[in-house]
Amino acid sequence: MHAANQTQLWVPSLLHSTGRPDPSVPAGAAVLVVPWCSLRQVKTSVSDMATQKMVAQVNSVAGDARVVRMEYNRSVDRFRKEIQDTSSRGVLPKMNPTDKAFEETSLDNKFVNAWGVELEAWDFDSTWSQISYPGESGQVLSCNTLDQGVWMPVGSGISPTTYSSWFDMDLDAMEKMRWIDATTSMVQISCSVWNPSNNLQAEIFYTTEFFNSGKVSALTPRLVVGRHNEDSGMMISSMMLFGFYLMMEEVQDMILTGFREYAMENGWSNVIDWVLILFTLLSESLHCVYLGLRPSLTGHHHWSEAAAQSLFVSTLGLALFFAIIRFLKYTYNVPIMCQIGRTFTSASYNISLFLATMLVLFVAFGVCFHITLSTDVKSFGSLRYSLFTLFEGLLGNMDGEEILRAQPYFGPVIFVMFYTMVLFVGFTILISIISNAYDTVKDDHPRDGFLVSVGEMMNKIANKVNESDQDQDARVELALVGDPDDEDRLGLIQKDVAALVSQVAELQSLVLALRADPSHVVAEPVESRSEPKVLRTCKEDPLGSEETWFATDGDWG
What we know:
The protein is of the alpha+beta class. It has helices spanning 2-15, 160-176, 238-257, 259-265, 267-292, 303-325, 337-373, 383-394, 400-406, 410-441, 450-481, 484-516; strands at residues 33-44, 46-60, 63-76, 84-85, 90-92, 102-107, 110-112, 118-120, 124-125, 132-133, 138-142, 146-147, 150-151, 184-195, 200-210, 216-218, 222-227, 521-523, 534-537, 550-551.
């Protein structure tokens, strides 16, 4: 009932505003138009089963007795296309005498495209339960505002106020008549939203699932946007042309180099090329499929077209991803960058084995968390969601407190085991694998080529500039601080100059003494020429009669 109430609140927000004049919008212009919406449900058949009883113990005067309180022998199974109920209830009773009679009809899973070809509708896959529902078949209603399950408020000839009141009355009647009952598996409302200004059309699908366990799950609305009118005439597909160009280039390399060298020399980059070719051709093929699934002007089945458009967008995103990644192929001639690709190549085998091991661990923990916590924690309600929640846990987004509240004893045990085995131990091994691969290839040199030559030349220029800067810095430092060897030599020179000045002073005093009294100067012959000649002078000492001797290395002259 909650999901039905949300549906009741969501649809009028679109339909009630449609057709109401807006004075701020110029005539002939529109920003948002909702041309139609549709409503259908998918039911499952009721099957026989072994009788299920609920027995109660009753005390009476005659004694205790076992009384059967409830007994069931029919089951509502989980929906499968093989057990879909395609019957219809026909004309339903009126809730008010003035209302139009409700008539339920059943649709098959066929639709007619814009070229008049009858096609099978694509299945609608639930994002929560992974159940595949038929894309077109199901039960639809005809009433005041519905015509074969389709609302067409635009151009209906009914005033917006009257249309809104009839719409509310129809929803109330569907709830009172229990149009959604115990056999209902899925109810879907789809709306087409048109933006003429940008030539875009959006298809919105609001789906609610009703499980045989009693659980009701409102799925996240699916929104798919595409072009409303495609350009006519002959067009050249750039994606197809690009894909065939890459294919011819790879085939040519394979023929010229040989398959063994082609596969072993640049194995990982060639794999990227072929994956890019695959997604490029696939995206263009899906675009053609999207055009082929466009319904006729009188048809209102848009899920197949929207599903093809959604696949086209996904494959186009992957194609552009690998197209950009392909630039790494040209890093083999770039210093430093070539080591990244060679590290991937060297570690690819070990990483593949590591990922296989981690996949086993993830599946094991995913099954354990799903079985243990599926009824208490919504994020572990299905195996797929459980695996995705564990991956989010590696990024720190798993709620440990919620697990603790759901399973106070066993929950923390598996929580700690998961983080210890997968995060701490497992990814430490992954880092060591990559480190070993990098150590293996870090001394490899890039291939000779233009980029390598330019890189070497730039390195030489940079080294010379660095040497010149270092010499200049050394000279500046020497000018500011000085050389220690120069300081030692300067000290010796200063000592020599001081000694020379002292000798000059003594010589001056001697000259003055000679001028005053030449008789005190005597020359004493030297006995040996090997000894220095001595100039001996005697002068009277003021304190006594000691003689003061001066020696010179030169001749007396």
